[in-house]
Amino acid sequence: MSKSQIKKLIYVVDSNGKSLMPTTRNRKVRHWLATGQAHWFGNSRKTIQFTRPVNQHIQPVTVGVDLGRHTGISAVDQSNNREYYSAQVERPYVQEVKRNKQRKMYRTQKRHRLRHRQSRFDNRRKPNGWLAPTIQHQLDFIDYEIQRVSQFLPVDKIVLEDQPFDIRKLTNDNQRPADYTKGPQSGFASLKAYLYASQNGIDPIDGQHYLLSDMVVHHLLPRSQGGTNSPHNLVLISKEHHNNANHRNGVLKHLAQQLRDCLDTRGAYLMNILYNRLPEQLSNIAPVVFTAGYITAQNRKTYGINKSHINDALVIAGGNAQTIRLAPSIKRVKLRRNNRSLAKFYDAKYEDLRDGQIKSGQELSSGRTSRSREYHYDNQRIYRARKIKKGRTSIRKNHYQLRPHDLIKYQNHIYEVNGVHNNGHRVLLFINCKKKSVAISKVTCIKHVNGILETIL
User: Fold this and answer.
1) CA 135 to CA 30: how far, in whole Å?
2) Pairwise CA distance, residues 42 & 450, whole Å
3) Which 8-state DSSP code applies to residue 452?
4) Reduced to 3 states, what is the DSSP secondary structure of residue 324?
5) H or E segment and range at residue 77
6) First to last CA, the chain
7) Which fold does the domain 184-259 belong to in CATH?
């Protein structure tokens, strides 16, 4: 296992913003700051910038990147066999897909409320190189994290662990060259027609045959949980069985466990995008080279290093079991800067006649999903007793000063903000393992998260 000598590592840049070698001489750093020879660089308290000329004695630093949804980044000085930076960066995917879907719904409703809408012509073309928002954001986030390391370390080479994938071969071993231009839906007018033909018009819940017009498309894994519109994640069921009751009682969930058995190729698609586009974006920093995953795994086993994203990045950067790890391993998670949901609905609460428990209005609903046709719904509305709390809509009208995960000072102690309520006038803190509401006038802000939540692993 690599040696760990974690110290207070301070990164250094010169007066022109050029990266120099970091230092662990904290006493010297305090002297430079006190005498005005240096100041903190940007908004960071981990990097200083000299205000006077200094000698530029630097050693080349290699950055190793273990690409993926959870990306590991390591910066190693191979001449001294020291690691100066170690991080695991993540960008939540499922939450972003859910917010994009919700935004699409709100915009559609807004367009329908317009009395008159100007005619649209051919203005919906996507530019060349367009990517889906989640893929583009993941590419930009990884590029930003690597560019960020080059701001405080003299990066000489970047090593990326990535290889292109043949997605058609992954899903079909008998793929022929002529089949690359034909997908599984070739010859069908729509996706629904393809699913209807593959199921022979049979509803898998009751085994009965239905007309195409009497069936709807159901996602086995919901879109809000990361599911896709791929045919492997879709099934046709009758309108009678596609209701809220079957969503609640587990019938559709049990159906998903039976039918959903396919290879998820989203990770392979992301790796292909990173392989093709990331080197061009990083070419302004240092030369970019590639390595394969089996080489990293072989070297890691030879050195006796445990499997993790940060350890893989260490091996990719040229580290080994004798590498001295000076910097603590950190985890950086991308957060949204603003909560753009201005209106929130809080459902009413009712007492259940059967067991006396308090349940929401959605749980005790009629289950009706269509007003034009009458189906056999599981009506739970008849079990509503007295209303405990009525439903309400809360509208957010201004930007709050504090947000979750911000660091504040309260009664000479430092806490992390757990939430904000009362129109931004009060914050929720965890004090002695209990939630406490504190007025915002009684706390002092120490640090804003600013879109990145950083913790020590």
Assistant:
1) 43
2) 13
3) E
4) strand
5) strand 70-77
6) 17
7) DNA Binding (I), subunit A (1.10.30)
Within 13 Å and on the Cβ side, how many CA atoms surround 326? 18
Other residues' Cβ atoms within 10 Å of the Cβ of residue 415: 20
pLDDT of the residue at 378? 76
CB 85 within 8 A of CB 153: yes
pLDDT of residue 5: 64
C-alpha to C-alpha distance for 209 and 341, rounded to whole angstroms: 43
Partners of residue 65 on adjacent β-strands: 73, 160
- Phi and psi of 409, rounded to 5°? -115, 125
DSSP assignment of 82-113 equals EEEEEEEEE--SHHHHHHHHHHHHHHHHHHHT
Residue in 19, 24, 35, 20 with CA at minimum distance from that of residue 328: 24
pLDDT of residue 188: 83
Smallest CA-to-CA distance from 443 within 418, 417, 419 is with 417
88, 93, 96, 101: CA torsion to nearest 10: 180
407-456: in CATH 2.20.28:
no
Mean pLDDT, 10 residues at a time, the chain of 457 residues: 69 92 92 94 87 88 94 94 95 81 78 69 77 91 95 95 82 70 77 88 89 89 78 86 76 76 77 93 93 94 94 94 92 84 86 93 82 72 92 83 90 92 90 91 89 89
pLDDT on residue 263: 64
- CA torsion 245-246-249-253 (nearest 10°) is -150
Four-CA torsion 27, 33, 39, 41, nearest 10 degrees: 20
Query: With a threshold of 0.85, does the pTM exceed it?
Result: no
CA of residue 336 relative to chain centroid, distance: 10
Asked if 170 and 301 count as a contact pair (C-beta separation under 8 A), the reply is no
Closest among 456, 406, 398 to 429, alpha carbons compared: 406
Separation in Å, CA 287 to CA 155, 158, 276: 10, 6, 15
For helices 133-150 and 266-282, angle between their N-to-C axes, nearest 10 degrees = 40
Closest CA to 391 of 344, 429, 351, 438: 344
> What's the sign of the alpha-carbon dihedral 438, 441, 444, 448?
positive
Query: For position 116, what pLDDT does the model report?
Result: 66
Q: Which two tokens stand for residue 181?
A: 């231009």
In the block, residue with structure tokens 């972003």: 96
Distance of CA 348 to the CA centre of its chain: 32
Per domain, the residue ranges of the chain are 184-259, 343-395, 407-456
In this structure, what are the phi and psi dihedrals at residue 32, rounded to the nearest 5 degrees? -65, -40
Structure tokens given for 346: 């809080």
